[in-house]
Amino acid sequence: MKHTIIRKRDPNQMLQEALEDGWETIDTMPLRGEGVFLVLTVSGLVRLAHNRNSVRRARRADAYGPKRSSVIAEESGNYLAAIAWKWPDK
Fold it and tell me: Engineering a disulfide at 34: which of 14, 19, 30, 58 sits with its beta carbon 3.0 to 4.6 angstroms away?
């Protein structure tokens, strides 16, 4: 059964909601060796990841979504485009 109104995820709206829920912007994302953290990706996934970069490099916001940074998924090793992050709950 198809939806009558097609709803597409809006990364800018997801980022705004995440920031309201206590997530951090990528400007404060941990660097290499600072630990594993949760990231919210442009596609809406939440994954454990780490940063391989020792310097923060972010891609500017564009028509595809807000400012984002590449991180490495812990489970799969794939690159992810993170738009927000937070420390995992213990």
Answer: 30
Task: Say if CB 87 and CB 24 are below 8 A apart.
Answer: no
Q: How many Å apart are CA 28 and CA 46, to the nearest integer?
A: 18
Q: Taking Cα atoms as reference points, which of 88, 83, 85 lies closest to residue 43?
A: 83
**CA angle 24–38–28, rounded 5-degree value:** 30
Q: How many whole angstroms separate alpha carbon 7 and alpha carbon 53?
A: 35
Q: Which range, of 7-11, 23-27, 61-65, averages the lowest pLDDT?
A: 7-11
Helix (H, G, I), strand (E, B) or coil at 3: coil
Q: Which residue has the higher pLDDT, 65 or 76?
A: 76
Task: Round to whole Å and give the CA distance between 42 and 9.
Answer: 9
Beta-bridge partner residues of 46: 40
